[in-house]
Design goal:
Helix content is 42%, strand content 17%. By secondary structure, it is of the alpha/beta class.
Length: 254
Amino acid sequence: MLFDSHCHLTDERFSADLDDVVARAREAGVTRLVTVASDLEDAERACAVAARYEGVWATAGIHPHVAERADADAFARLVDLAARPEVVALGETGLDYYYDHSPREAQRRSFRRHLELARERGLPVVVHSRRAEGDTIALLREAAGEVRGVLHCFDGSPALLEAGLEAGWFVSFSGLITFRNYAGAELVRAVPADRLLVETDSPYLAPVPHRGKRNEPAFVAVVAEAVARLRGEPPEAVARATTRNACELYGLAE
């Protein structure tokens, strides 16, 4: 069994055939999925999708791209969303200094508030970090020991990996690790087996040999196989470990 720990089933690219997408995931052995929200409206849609399919859960959060919208009213609404039974985490939140779609101070403020809410509610956080490692590490260390979380779609430095592991967080790898120019094999091997996750981030980042196509949760099997190759481990062991770890992160029974 496999667990796609991070996908986006609410994306419009899935609107015409979502039933088939979920069915293909099941056929590929992907029995559990978490559909991750990018803003509050998306969180509403994610909750609806999670209620529709067995083995699917949702998150609620405000992506750093839209962090300037994260005012007091938005967080009051997020508190309400976080109480829904379908919601197993907050996010995705974090920092993105590559695109800088929102002012950096607004991103830091929103990320910090997500971490505070996670501590208050006992929920984990799903964290996006791109070209913002110094501030991500600083905020992660502020929350260390008080908040559980995952560095999703990890493509960062050894310093960010070390900070995440020191905080007791999980590290998730996506189809990026199958790309020809991927240079992070040593970091895939450095993650302890009990901190390792796999994801698709679908519909983005389809793994080889599907690169250039719409990604979907069934392809997390390809990611897990790539992780197993890089680590020199049996695919079945990676599947078991990553499923167990995702259940631990999201507070779900195995």
